[in-house]
Amino acid sequence: MGDVPLWGTPISEGPAFPNVHNLQLDIDFSTMHRNLIIFSKFPAVLKLWLDDWADSEDEPTDVPLRCTLDVLPLLQEYCGIWTPLHFLLPKPTLARIALSLCTPGELLSELRGEYKHITSLNARLPELDQQTLSSICACLPGLLDLRFSIFYDLEDGDVNDGFNPKATNFFSALADTPGLLGVPPTLQRLAISWEFDFDCLTIFDYFPVASPDRIPDFLVMRDTLRERCPTLRTLWFDGQDFMFKWRQLLGREEMEQENEIEDTEIENLREKLDDFWEGR
After folding, report:
1. Among residues of the chain, what percentage have pLDDT more than 70?
2. pTM of the predicted model, to two decimals?
3. Extended strands (E) in the chain
């Protein structure tokens, strides 16, 4: 089904679409609490995409969206902005979530309990640390697939001795046993990818890279994770200029590590990550 023009039609008087399984909506979330009835027009939706088209000056509503099981009763997958998560998460049929860019605080503000039925989370964040990772995983103890894409604006104060330590510091902290013990033991696939924007740098005339001698031992991390997660079969750790990937296939393993990636290779690796992830 294509675009459906309903401008000027009261939602309560609009038609129902009982055969729609995939639904994409652009919604003004500042008034969404008054318009939840729109979802009742799509009772068979399995996958939902939501985007917010409101003007940036609009004040967001402080009225929470209420979860009712008779709205979107079959929903299995949600993709879009973080705002309606607290409304969608209690639905027992929901299993997979993919979020557009949000802060760790915004994501954690929507995780208001323990949701064992969520098996997949794919989130784009501007930053991530080990404590935040553990807090997210504590709310989603049944995860099978977990992917974080971090888009970080590197500033002059982040650079240490001419090197960029953000990704190596993160993975080194994660390599400590308490960090790895924060992931759910159910986990089968884990991907964490860092991408840096250098536009905020003012005193450097080059793009700082990770120090090769600070890159953690990913094989040790893999073995620790496999002890924690017996069914683990896919890993992807990426710091933009270094990368480790491993996959357990039927009867064999695939593994690759690069500690000094050229700028020209980065985009190709990003495309490979999507293929690698979708390959399951």
Report:
1. 82
2. 0.87
3. 22-27, 47-52, 77-80, 96-99, 120-125, 145-153, 189-197, 234-238, 243-249, 252-258
